[in-house]
Inverse folding.
C-alpha cells in the first residue's frame, strides 16, 4: 500500500512536468492533427457514439473521454483533455522506466541503478526530443510508447523467468499496442519473428507455434472483437480512404539515432544472451516496424514511427552490465543521443514534427492555428442546437463545441429525418467550404455518404426559409422552424 | 547408531532360523540407523519375512505367548469398556478376563512404553501376550464398528449442525430463496422490462467480477511462490530421515482394484522412510473385488486395509472419517488410488509446516495429469488443472482467500484435523468444504510446488459424472458456509468473502448462467438486436459486449497461459477450444443442480483406469512389484 502511495505521489508530481513539456509548443500554436481528432472523437464517445466515424484506435479516445468527463466540471476544455491524458500517460511511462531502472536483480546485467543514477538516466530519456514530440502528438502516441515499454519489459522478464504473468504482460502489452495506435499494430506485426528470438530457447523448442499463439492471441482476439463490434454497432472499423501521409525508411534513421545506447549495449552484453537477446529482439522489432511502416503507411510522421525505440533504449540502459563505468557510459551515450535525435528529427521528421520544432524553438516562427477555420463556426453555432454536420469529418469543430449536446448524431431519428428530407425546421447544417474530404494525420476519416447526399441538396437552388452563411471553413445553412419536411 | 536390544535379538533370531539372509539383515540394520526406527518397523516395510514369522520371534524374544485373534476371538463387550483411541495408539487389546480375574491383554509391540500404556489403560492386574498388529486393529474395528461408524457419519453434524451439509438448506436460507423468487416473480408481473434489466445488470456485473477476480488470481498466483518454493525445497533437502515423524497416508478406494499397484509403487518410491508411513487402504466392506485385489498384492506390513462398515451416505469423506480413527501419524495425507505424488512431496510438506508455523494446518499440493496428450478432453482437463492448481490456488493463498482443497494430496496436521471434526460425509466435495472451514476457524492453508500426477478422464460421460459431483459439492459448500454470513465475514474478511463468492459461487453460477447468455447471444444474432434491445439499454449493452468479447477472451487467454509454468506450451493453442469445455461444464452444472435437489448425498463414482497411459503405468507397477517381492 505504501509502495502504491509513493508511486501515485511521484506520478502526480510528474504529470505537471509532462504538461509543461507539452504546453510550451501548444501554447505557441502547435496542435497535432491526432490531438484534434482524439478530442473530437472523445466528445462523441462520451455521448456513447462514434459519430459515424471509425472505432479504431479505441483506447486513446476512451481514455480522453474519461478525462474529458471527469475534467468538465473543473472547466477542462475538450481540446485540453487529450493533452492532459497524454501528460498522464507520459508520467506513467517515466515512472515505469524509473521502476525498471531501480528494480533490484541478481547476476551480471541484473543489478538495478541507485536512485540518483536512475533519475539522471530518466531525465536524459525524458529530454530526448522524441518524448516531448510524442507528448504533443497526443494520447495515442503515448499509449504506443507505453505499450512498447511494456513489451520490452515483458520480453526481458519472459526470457528470465518464463512465467505466466510474463506471458500475460506480453499479451497485454501487444493488446495495448494494437488498440492504441496504427503504428502499434505495425510494431506488433514486426515483432512477430523477434519474439521468437527473445524467447527462452527451451520454451520455444517444445512447441514454437504454441508459444507464439499464446503471445499473439490477445492482439488477434482484440482485432476480431473490434470487427465484431463494428458489425454489431454498425460503425466503421478500418479507414476507408487512401492514406494522405507517407513515411519512408527515414523513420529508421531517427530510430537509429534514438537507439544509440541500445546498439552500444549489445557490445558489453554479447556474452550474456539472456540479457542481450531481448535487447537485440526489440532493436530488430523497432527498426523493422519503421521499415514496415514505409510500406504499410500506418503513421505518416517518421518521428512517431520511430518512437518505440525510446522504450528499447530505456530497457538497454537497465540491462547494461554493472561495472564502475556503467553509469558514466550510459549517461554519456544518452547525452549523445539528444543532439543526434534532434538532428535526425529536423532532417527526417514529418511536416508536423517540423511544425513542432518550430513551435518548440523560441526564436523560430510559430506555426499557425490549425483550428482557425473552425473557431468562427463553432462560436456561431454553439448552444443553438439541432446541428447537422458530418461529425466523423469535423473533429475540430466537435472538440471546439465541447459537447455532443445539440448535435444530430448518426442513428438519431431527427438526423435521419433531416437527411431524408434535405430540409428540416430548426436544423442548422454545417458543410465544409473547401473541396475534398478532410484528411487527418495518419488514417483518413470515412466519408459520410448521407452527408454527401445532403450536400447535393443544399447546393440546389435556394428554398424558402433557407439562409446561408460563411464562417471560417464552414458554410452554415439554417432552415426556419416553420419549414416542414416534405 | 547401535541397535536397541530388541532389534538386535530379533535380527539374530530371524537369521538363526533362516528367515532372513545376512545381507538382508545388514541392509535392515543400516536402515534402522538411518531412519531411527527398530528392526521390527524396518521389516514391516519390506517383504523379506512374513508378518507371522516376525510376531512369532517377537513373542519368543519377550517370552510371551502368541495369540491368534482370528481363531481365538476376543471379548468385544470387554473391548468396548476401554478407550478406542488409546488402544489404537498403543496397539493394545483386552482379549478376555481370565479365571484368575486378571485381564489378558494383547500387544503388537511389547516393550517398556507399551507396558506403561497398558497399566495406564487397564490397570496393574494384567497378563501380557503378543498378537499381530493386523489382528489387534481388526478386533478393534469389529468391536467399535457401530460407534465409530456413527461417529464417522454424524460426528460433525452433531458437534456443529450448521457446518454440516446434512441439511441441504436451512430454514432461513429457504426463506431467503423463497423471498427472492417472490420478488422476481412480482417484478415480472408488475414491471417485466425493468425486472429483466435489473436481472441482466446483476448477472452482467457478476460476470465482470468473475473475470476480473480470476485474472487477478492468475497474476498474483503466477508471480507468487518462486522464492518460497526454493526455500521449502532447500529445507526439505536438509531434513534427516531419522527426525521424520510418522505420517499417515489414507487411500480411500471403491471398486477400483485395477489401479492399486500404481499407488503402492508410487508410495514405495516416496523419499520418506517407508517404516514411518502409516498407510491405510480404506475400502468399503462390501467391495469384495478391491479387498481381494489388495490382499493378493502381498503388501508390506505398513500397508493396512481398513474396512468401512456399510452405512448411508456411502461417500469418500465418511470412509476417511472412519479410517482416521485408526490413524497413528502426526500428519496425514489423502491420495487417490491412481495418484503418483512426486517423491519429495512429504518432506516438502513437513518443511512448509515448519516454515509457516502452527497456524498452517493444511498444505495443498498441486494436481496434474500424466495422460494430458491422450485426447481433447484430457488436454482441456490438464489446462483446467494447470490454471486451477498452478495459478489460481497460489493466488488465493497470497490474497488470504479461503482455499477450497482439491481432491487429493492435501496434507493435514492430525491434531487440527481431529479438532475440526474432520470431513463432512454429507458433502460430496468434502475437501473444498474443509478448506473453507479451516480458514473460518483461523487456520491457514498453504499451497506448495509439489505435484501429484493423476489420470485425467478420457471419457466425456465419465467426466460429466465427476464434474457434476464437484459442482454439486461446491453448491453444498456455498450453502453451508453462507448460513452464518456475519461469522463468515468476520472470520475470512471482506476480501475472503469476495473470493469465496466468486471462487465457490462463481464456479457453479457461471455454469448455470452460461446457457442463458448464449441464448441471448443467439437471439441477438438471429434477430439483429431488435428482440433484445428493450432489456439491453446502451450502458448495459456495452458492458455485456465487454463481457462477451474481453471477458471470454481473457478466460480463454488465461487457459492458454496456464501450462507455461510447466513449459507445456504445446497445450497452449488448445486453450482456444475451451468454449467446448465450458459447454460440458454447463451440462455438469445442471446435472449437479438436479442432483442437489433429488439426491444430494449421492456420490457419482469416477471410473479410473480407462486411460491407455494408466494401463502402461499399471504394467510397469506390476513388474516393479514382482521384482520387489
Amino acid at each position: 500500500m505504501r509502495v502504491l502511495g509513493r508511486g501515485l505521489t511521484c506520478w502526480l508530481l510528474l504529470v505537471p512536468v509532462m504538461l509543461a513539456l507539452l504546453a510550451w509548443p501548444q501554447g505557441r500554436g502547435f496542435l497535432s492533427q491526432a490531438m484534434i481528432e482524439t478530442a473530437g472523437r472523445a466528445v462523441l464517445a462520451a455521448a456513447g457514439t462514434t459519430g459515424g466515424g471509425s472505432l479504431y484506435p479505441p483506447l486513446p479516445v476512451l481514455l480522453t473521454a474519461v478525462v474529458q468527463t471527469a475534467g468538465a466540471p473543473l472547466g477542462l476544455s475538450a481540446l485540453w483533455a487529450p493533452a492532459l491524458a497524454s501528460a498522464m500517460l507520459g508520467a506513467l511511462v517515466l515512472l515505469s522506466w524509473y521502476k525498471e531502472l531501480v528494480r533490484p536483480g541478481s547476476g551480471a546485467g541484473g543489478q538495478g541503478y541507485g536512485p540518483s543514477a536512475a533519475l539522471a538516466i530518466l531525465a536524459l530519456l525524458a529530454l530526448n526530443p522524441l518524448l516531448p514530440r510524442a507528448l504533443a502528438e497526443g494520447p495515442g502516441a503515448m499509449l504506443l510508447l507505453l505499450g512498447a515499454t511494456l513489451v520490452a519489459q515483458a520480453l526481458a522478464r519472459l526470457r528470465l523467468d518464463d512465467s505466466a504473468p510474463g506471458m500475460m504482460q506480453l499479451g497485454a502489452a501487444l493488446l495495448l499496442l494494437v488498440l492504441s495506435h496504427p503504428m502499434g499494430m505495425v510494431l506488433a506485426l514486426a515483432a512477430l519473428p523477434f519474439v521468437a528470438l527473445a524467447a527462452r530457447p527451451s520454451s520455444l523448442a517444445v512447441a514454437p507455434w504454441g508459444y507464439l499463439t499464446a503471445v499473439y492471441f490477445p492482439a488477434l482476439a482484440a482485432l476480431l472483437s473490434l470487427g465484431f463490434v463494428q458489425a454489431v454497432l454498425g460503425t466503421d472499423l478500418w479507414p476507408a480512404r487512401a492514406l494522405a501521409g507517407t513515411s519512408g525508411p527515414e523513420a529508421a534513421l531517427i530510430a537509429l539515432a534514438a537507439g544509440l545506447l541500445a546498439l552500444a549495449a549489445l557490445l558489453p552484453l554479447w556474452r550474456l544472451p539472456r540479457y542481450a537477446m531481448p535487447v537485440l529482439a526489440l532493436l530488430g522489432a523497432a527498426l523493422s516496424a519503421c521499415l514496415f511502416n514505409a510500406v504499410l503507411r500506418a503513421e505518416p510522421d517518421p518521428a512517431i514511427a520511430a518512437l518505440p525505440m525510446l522504450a528499447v533504449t530505456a530497457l538497454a540502459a537497465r540491462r547494461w552490465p554493472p561495472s564502475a563505468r556503467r553509469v558514466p557510459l550510459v549517461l554519456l551515450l544518452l547525452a549523445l543521443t539528444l543532439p543526434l535525435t534532434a538532428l535526425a528529427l529536423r532532417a527526417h521528421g514529418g511536416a508536423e514534427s517540423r511544425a513542432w520544432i518550430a513551435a518548440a524553438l523560441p526564436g523560430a516562427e510559430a506555426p499557425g492555428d490549425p483550428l482557425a477555420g473552425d473557431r468562427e463556426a463553432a462560436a456561431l453555432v454553439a448552444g443553438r442546437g439541432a446541428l447537422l454536420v458530418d461529425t466523423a469529418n469535423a473533429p475540430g469543430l466537435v472538440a471546439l463545441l465541447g459537447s455532443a449536446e445539440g448535435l444530430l448524431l448518426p442513428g438519431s431519428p431527427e438526423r435521419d429525418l433531416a437527411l431524408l428530407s434535405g430540409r428540416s425546421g430548426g436544423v442548422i447544417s454545417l458543410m465544409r467550404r473547401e473541396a475534398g474530404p478532410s484528411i487527418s494525420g495518419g488514417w483518413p476519416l470515412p466519408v459520410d455518404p448521407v452527408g454527401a447526399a445532403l450536400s447535393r441538396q443544399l447546393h440546389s437552388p435556394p428554398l424558402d426559409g433557407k439562409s446561408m452563411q460563411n464562417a471560417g471553413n464552414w458554410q452554415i445553412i439554417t432552415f426556419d422552424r416553420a419549414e416542414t419536411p416534405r | 547408531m547401535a541397535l536397541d536390544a530388541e532389534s538386535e535379538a530379533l535380527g539374530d533370531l530371524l537369521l538363526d532360523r533362516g528367515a532372513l539372509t545376512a545381507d538382508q539383515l545388514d541392509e535392515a540394520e543400516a536402515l534402522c540407523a538411518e531412519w531411527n526406527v527398530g528392526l521390527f518397523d524396518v521389516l514391516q516395510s519390506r517383504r523379506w519375512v512374513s508378518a507371522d514369522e516376525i510376531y512369532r520371534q517377537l513373542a519368543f524374544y519377550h517370552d510371551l505367548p502368541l495369540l491368534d485373534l482370528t481363531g481365538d476371538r476376543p471379548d468385544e463387550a470387554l473391548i468396548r469398556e476401554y478407550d478406542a483411541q488409546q488402544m489404537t495408539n498403543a496397539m493394545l487389546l483386552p482379549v478376555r478376563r481370565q479365571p484368575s480375574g486378571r485381564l489378558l491383554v494383547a500387544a503388537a509391540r511389547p516393550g517398556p512404553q507399551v507396558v506403561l500404556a497398558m497399566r495406564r489403560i487397564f490397570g496393574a492386574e494384567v497378563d501380557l501376550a503378543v498378537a499381530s498388529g493386523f489382528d489387534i486393529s481388526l478386533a478393534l474395528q469389529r468391536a467399535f464398528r457401530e460407534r465409530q461408524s456413527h461417529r464417522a457419519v454424524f460426528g460433525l453434524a452433531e458437534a456443529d449442525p450448521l457446518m454440516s451439509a446434512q441439511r441441504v438448506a436451512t430454514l432461513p436460507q429457504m426463506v431467503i430463496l423463497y423471498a427472492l423468487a417472490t420478488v422476481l416473480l412480482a417484478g415480472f408481473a408488475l414491471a417485466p422490462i425493468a425486472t429483466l434489466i435489473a436481472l441482466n445488470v446483476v448477472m452482467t456485473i457478476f460476470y465482470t467480477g468473475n473475470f476480473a477476480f480470476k485474472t487477478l488470481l492468475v497474476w498474483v498466483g503466477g508471480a507468487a511462490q518462486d522464492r518460497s518454493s526454493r526455500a521449502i525445497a532447500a529445507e526439505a533437502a536438509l531434513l534427516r530421515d531419522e527426525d521424520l515423524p510418522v505420517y499417515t497416508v489414507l487411500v480411500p478406494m471403491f471398486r477400483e482394484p485395477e489401479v492399486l499397484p500404481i499407488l503402492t509403487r508410487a508410495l514405495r518410491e516416496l523419499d520418506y522412510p517407508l517404516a514411518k508411513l502409516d498407510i491405510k487402504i480404506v475400502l468399503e466392506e462390501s467391495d469384495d473385488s478391491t479387498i481381494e485385489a489388495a490382499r493378493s498384492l502381498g503388501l508390506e506390513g505398513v500397508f493396512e486395509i481398513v474396512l468401512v462398515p456399510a452405512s448411508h451416505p456411502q461417500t469418500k469423506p465418511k470412509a476417511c472419517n472412519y479410517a482416521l480413527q485408526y490413524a497413528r501419524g502426526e500428519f496425514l495425507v489423502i491420495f487417490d488410488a491412481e495418484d503418483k505424488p512426486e517423491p519429495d512431496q512429504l518432506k516438502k510438506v513437513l518443511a512448509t509446516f515448519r516454515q509457516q508455523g502452527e497456524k498452517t494446518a493444511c498444505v495443498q499440493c498441486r494436481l496434474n495429469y500424466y495422460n494430458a496428450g491422450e485426447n481433447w478432453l484430457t488436454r482441456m482437463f490438464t489446462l483446467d488443472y494447470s490454471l486451477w492448481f498452478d495459478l489460481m490456488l497460489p493466488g488465493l493463498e497470497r490474497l488470504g482467500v479461503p482455499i477450497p482443497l482439491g481432491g487429493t494430496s492435501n496434507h493435514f496436521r492430525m491434531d487440527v484435523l481431529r479438532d475440526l471434526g474432520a470431513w463432512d460425509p454429507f458433502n460430496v466435495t468434502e475437501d473444498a468444504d474443509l478448506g473453507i472451514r479451516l480458514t473460518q476457524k483461523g487456520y491457514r492453508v498453504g499451497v506448495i510446488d509439489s505435484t501429484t500426477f493423476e489420470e485425467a478422464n478420457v471419457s466425456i460421460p465419465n467426466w460429466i459424472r465427476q464434474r457434476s459431483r464437484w459442482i454439486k459439492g461446491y453448491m453444498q459448500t456455498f450453502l453451508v458456509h453462507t448460513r452464518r454470513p456475519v461469522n463468515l465475514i468476520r472470520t475470512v474478511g471482506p476480501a475472503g468473502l469476495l473470493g469465496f463468492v466468486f471462487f465457490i459461487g462463481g464456479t457453479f453460477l457461471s455454469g448455470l448462467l452460461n446457457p442463458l447468455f448464449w441464448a441471448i447471444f443467439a437471439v441477438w444474432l438471429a434477430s439483429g438486436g431488435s428482440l433484445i434491445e428493450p432489456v439491453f439499454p446502451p450502458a448495459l449493452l456495452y458492458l455485456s459486449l465487454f463481457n462477451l468479447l474481453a471477458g471470454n477472451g481473457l478466460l480463454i487467454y488465461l487457459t492458454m497461459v496456464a501450462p507455461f509454468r510447466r513449459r507445456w506450451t504445446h497445450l497452449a493453442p488448445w486453450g482456444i477450444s475451451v468454449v467446448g469445455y465450458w459447454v460440458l461444464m454447463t451440462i455438469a452444472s445442471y446435472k449437479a443442480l438436479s442432483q442437489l435437489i433429488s439426491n444430494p448425498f449421492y456420490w457419482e463414482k469416477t471410473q479410473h483406469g480407462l486411460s491407455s497411459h494408466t494401463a502402461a503405468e499399471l504394467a510397469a507397477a506390476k513388474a516393479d512389484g514382482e521384482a520387489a517381492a
